[in-house]
Design the sequence.
């Protein structure tokens, strides 16, 4: 089985210094920037994930760029999964290196399904203004990441822009202080489906908290989301949604996610044994 999981706000979390000190040994440092702590992981989650990796294939799946993913040392250097998906699906990394064949495939898919990036820039320039946009980055030649002041963001204008971008083949996702604008072909589902085919695996369990994770969770055989983030807010607005959510919110939601994956993985093993003996 494959366990494909988003990282930020799903398995790893930023924590204020005071909160990190209060939690002490209950968390482990996940990432440093310029020598300063940036994000953490529950100690229990780390141990559970380490154990799970002896039984299944763990694929971190993140909107971060390749360089930003490699910065998460608790995943990239300590756990060292063979496969990782970065750039929201734009890149598949194998043993720490990007897969060039997948990159060629992605460029072709984007060109076929989305309008040119300069047309997107022109549309965004009409809405995104320095009064509320702190920084804008074009990431890995695939998508835009904008850091914004949420309290100053013109919600109706951004909503209208998002609708127009969707008609142009680009999706918009608002996560905290970040607004992502991503070609529809660049998604977490297709990249995980590609690795699944490469490995010949049968089942996929997935977790994630944002709308960019939705296609991955919908693709998976088993899916669970933390009790926070875009997907949880969407569930509150539409209670008929079909997602499983953790009871816990915040950093310790990851403990429940991994316990759930352990359970479904064991169920799959038991079914296989029954099938083999019947």
Sequence:
């Amino acid at each position: 089985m494959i366990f494909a999981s988003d990282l930020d706000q799903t398995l790893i979390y930023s924590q204020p210094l005071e909160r990190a000190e209060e939690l002490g040994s209950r968390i482990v440092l996940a990432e440093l920037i310029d020598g300063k702590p940036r994000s953490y992981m529950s100690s229990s989650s780390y141990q559970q994930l380490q154990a799970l990796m002896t039984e299944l294939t763990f694929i971190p799946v993140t909107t971060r760029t390749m360089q930003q993913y490699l910065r998460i040392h608790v995943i990239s250097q300590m756990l060292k999964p063979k496969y990782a998906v970065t750039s929201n699906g734009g890149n598949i990394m194998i043993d720490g290196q990007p897969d060039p064949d997948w990159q060629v495939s992605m460029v072709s898919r984007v060109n076929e399904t989305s309008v040119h990036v300069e047309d997107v820039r022109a549309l965004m320039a009409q809405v995104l203004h320095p009064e509320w946009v702190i920084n804008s980055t074009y990431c890995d030649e695939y998508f835009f990441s904008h850091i914004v002041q949420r309290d100053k963001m013109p919600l109706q204008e951004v909503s209208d822009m998002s609708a127009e971008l969707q008609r142009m083949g680009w999706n918009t996702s608002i996560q905290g202080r970040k607004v992502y604008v991503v070609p529809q072909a660049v998604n977490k589902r297709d990249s995980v489906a590609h690795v699944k085919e490469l490995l010949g695996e049968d089942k996929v369990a997935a977790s994630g908290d944002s709308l960019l994770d939705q296609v991955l969770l919908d693709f998976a055989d088993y899916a669970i989301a933390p009790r926070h983030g875009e997907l949880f807010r969407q569930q509150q607005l539409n209670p008929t949604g079909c997602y499983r959510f953790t009871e816990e919110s915040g950093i310790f939601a990851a403990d429940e996610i991994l316990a759930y994956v352990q359970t479904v993985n064991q169920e799959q093993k038991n079914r296989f044994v029954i099938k083999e003996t019947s």
User: Anything to note?
Assistant: The two ends are 21 Å apart (CA to CA). The domain at 115-183 is CATH 3.90.1070 (Hypothetical Protein Ta0175; Chain: A, domain 2). The chain has a mean pLDDT of 95. The longest strand covers residues 27-33.
